[in-house]
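User: Please predict the structure of the protein below. I'd like the answer in structure-token form so I can feed it into my own downstream comparison script.

Assistant: Understood. Taking the following sequence of 481 residues as input:
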Amino acid sequence: MSLDAQINAAIAPVSDAISSTLFYPIELAGTPFPLILGWLVIASFIFTGYFGFLQLRGLGHSVRLIQGKYRAKNCDAAGEASHFQALSMALSGTVGLGNIAGVAVAISIGGAGATFWMILAGFLGMATKFVECTLAVKYRNEYPDGSISGGPMYYLTKGLAQRGMGTFGRALAILFALCCIGGSIGAGNMFQANQSFQQVVNVTGGSGSWWADKGWLFGLIIAVVLGCVIIGGARSIARVAEKIVPFMVLLYVSAALFVIASNIEHIGYAVQQILEGAFTSAGVTGGVLGALIQGFKRAAFSNEAGIGSAAIAHATARTKHPISEGYVALLEPFIDTVVICTMTALVIIITGRLDSELTGVQLTSDAFGSAVSWFPLVLAVSVVMFAFSTMISWFYYGLKALTYITGERPGVELAFKLFFCSCAVIGSSMSLGPVIDFSDAMIFLMAIPNIIGLYILMPEVKRDLKIYQAKLRSGEIARTR
């Protein structure tokens, strides 16, 4: 038995046990609804109502913060990254293969109507991001050398301790950290390397490609580039993210807009299909509920609102006001789901490829190729960039989760960097199977302790929001230009 087969065989029982619990389906009108999806979606509804649809009221302020309108007020604040860098770093962890392949799977199963529910779920998820990222800055650790450690581990520990629930909070934090480490190695690293390699092979000749049997070499190249980025820590990752994320988003969205413009006469048909599919059962597996579930699933699994991962990146923001980073975080699900995921869905629908027998990234590639023959190459570049950006962010998430448990030790950080880079080589050259199932389960298990903490701490966030808004009205926090 090969090494990867032995690893998969060892992990499979644990993976199956966790997944069967998290993704246990509740039957709703004959359509399975995973428990973990319900956990995430219900939270997003609660936070949206509790904060009075802040997504709508606060989006303009979010943009102004990204533009640096309040920079002078925050020039002496602690932090390792600007608002824009922190947002880019968080986006690099969420914008990935799910935006390309996952959306194709969702609308293949749920029909065009899944797009409507995906957009709605992305909108609701913005409120969840606001809460978790505000808390991440408020309860972060700031060290004398200027470095930062933050995220759910810290607000679960400190925030709950202030409410007399120290032991409970510590237990939740450790559970979150352990799951985050597992998720970063598998889904955040090995899966990304594996799928980007497969896409490179596909566009260079398939089984006859020169790359076909050289997964180890592809992984080694990725590992070397990855090592060059992560060696500088959060500041280096933030600098790379602020350059690569806007470029990859612009590249992908521009290609999608070109395909849509090339089929502009069908835009009315596409919108009609989305709206009819969202509210009627015609042609949709599972009817309206099937479309809703697939749309909500893709949005929740793509933008990771409620998972808590992005809060680790947003904790690095240079600001005196935690609420300000919560506002910035509103933009993350908007860009990831409302913009990028919707673009993917529109390209597939408007090109008439939804009825194709293809699925996943092959379906998306075929839709792009219908407009320009070489567009699948652009898609392949996007896949590799999305995958690499995900890897650098999830390295940071895994590292911060590990150092929360072990303490901030240089030896631990170096060992994790070497191990993480090695996993990129392994991921590119082996069949992953249950390894990825296990890692996915770890990521969604993170949502259990995280959202429990958010429910307990959300009144505190609401009080801080009122104080922040009062300072804006009084001019104490003033626009600089």
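That's the full token string. Residues 166-203 form the longest helix (38 residues).
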